[in-house]
């Protein structure tokens, strides 16, 4: 999931004035984290989010403590390719060049982050387009929402802004990317912030617990639903952001479904699985998985062929046994889906995962 969700969660809001925000905007070679990763260092030195396994964070914290963070946004380049154990290179486990944009959290940045947080909580996808600062030139940032929301700097005319948006949209197929040679002089960094992805688990059996635990750690918003109220009782040992106890039909009606939702049917009841499947089969979802064999799923469908948008059995084929291992295989299958922007097929993700 996007780092920003964890930052907002851990801070219980937006960063305070006087904090420093650091974002990876370009990576040459290998790195622990890629473009779009970001972190906050507050005035007390507390860190939220991460850029590496620790080496970059230490340097940024030292720069902040020593007053070496510039007033205006600046890109700091870390060359990790050296082999000297005392350098940034192989001794740190990395072998790439990492470009980090560093900026102070000002009232303007706070306002933009608050608007970003609110939009994401509404389920809106936000694309950030910013110019990368060069010496002597200002840096601008614009946020464009999937529902027409727009905030940030207005440094271009309407026609120039629309032209830049068209260029960026046409040329970018990644969630984070540096783009050169656009209609503006500066290099452009584009990053798409996606709402916290929802994972809906239909069936509150014991095997749902390890899936919920892993999903929480990865950053999903989880919904646990079952027709048996006794299994939905609040339980600190079984984390879920939302719980629903109702009939399959009422559960499906209660949830405001979104195209980015991932759903797993795992009730261990043939009849209830079929009821859930009948209610869901016409909905647009990112992932619809059914626990059990292909033969069982075909029976759920009345012995019809399984549509390509249904995944069964759920989870990567890693010879998993038992609830915990199966939960790992399920999350391994879901994680690549959370890394893509809308409109990429499941088949394309599967190919990318195998390569």
How does this structure look, described?
- By secondary structure, this protein is α/β, with parallel strands linked by helices.
- The chain has ten helices and 16 strands.
- Helix 8 (294-300) links the parallel strand 15 (287-290) and strand 16.
Low-confidence stretches: 343-355
Overall pLDDT score: 86
Tally of DSSP helical segments: 10
Q: Major β-sheet, in short?
A: 6 strands, parallel
Q: Name the overall outline.
A: elongated
Taking Cα atoms only, what radius of gyration do you get, to the nearest Å? 23 Å
Strand percentage: 15-25%
Order of helices and strands: HEEEHEEHEEEHEEEHEEHEHEHEHH
Structural class, judged by helices and strands?
alpha/beta
Please bin the fraction of helical residues.
25-40%
> What's the total count of β strands?
16
Number of domains: 2
Trace the largest sheet across and list its strands: 13-12-11-14-15-16
């Amino acid at each position: 999931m996007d780092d920003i969700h964890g930052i907002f969660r851990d801070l219980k809001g937006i960063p305070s004035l006087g904090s420093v925000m650091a974002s990876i905007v370009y990576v040459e070679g290998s790195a622990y984290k890629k473009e779009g990763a970001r972190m906050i260092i507050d005035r007390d030195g507390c860190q939220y989010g991460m850029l590496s396994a620790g080496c970059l964070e230490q340097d940024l914290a030292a720069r902040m403590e020593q007053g070496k963070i510039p007033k205006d946004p600046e890109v700091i380049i870390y060359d990790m390719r050296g082999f000297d154990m005392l350098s940034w290179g192989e001794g740190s486990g990395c072998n790439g060049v990492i470009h980090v944009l560093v900026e102070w959290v000002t009232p303007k940045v706070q306002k933009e982050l608050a608007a970003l947080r609110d939009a994401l909580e509404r389920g809106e996808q936000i694309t950030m387009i910013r110019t990368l600062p060069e010496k002597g030139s200002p840096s601008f940032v614009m946020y464009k929402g999937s529902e027409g929301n727009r905030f940030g700097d207005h440094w271009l005319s309407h026609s120039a802004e629309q032209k830049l948006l068209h260029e960026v949209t046409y040329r970018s197929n990644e969630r984070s990317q540096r783009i050169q040679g656009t209609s503006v002089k500066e290099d452009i960094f584009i990053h798409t912030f996606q709402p916290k992805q929802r994972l809906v688990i239909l069936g509150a059996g014991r095997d749902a617990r390890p899936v919920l635990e892993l999903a929480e750690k990865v950053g999903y918003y989880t919904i646990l639903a079952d027709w048996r109220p006794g299994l939905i009782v609040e339980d600190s040992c079984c984390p879920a952001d939302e719980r629903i106890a109702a009939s399959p039909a009422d559960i499906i009606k209660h949830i405001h479904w979104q195209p980015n939702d991932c759903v797993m049917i795992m009730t261990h009841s043939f009849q209830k699985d079929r009821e859930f499947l009948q209610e869901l089969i016409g909905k647009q979802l990112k992932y619809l998985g059914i626990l059990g064999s292909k033969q069982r799923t075909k029976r759920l469908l009345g012995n019809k062929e399984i549509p390509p948008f249904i995944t069964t059995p759920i989870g990567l084929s890693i010879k998993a046994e038992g609830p915990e291992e199966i939960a790992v295989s399920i999350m391994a299958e879901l994680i690549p889906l959370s890394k893509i922007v809308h409109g990429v097929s499941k088949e394309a993700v599967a190919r990318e995962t195998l390569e």
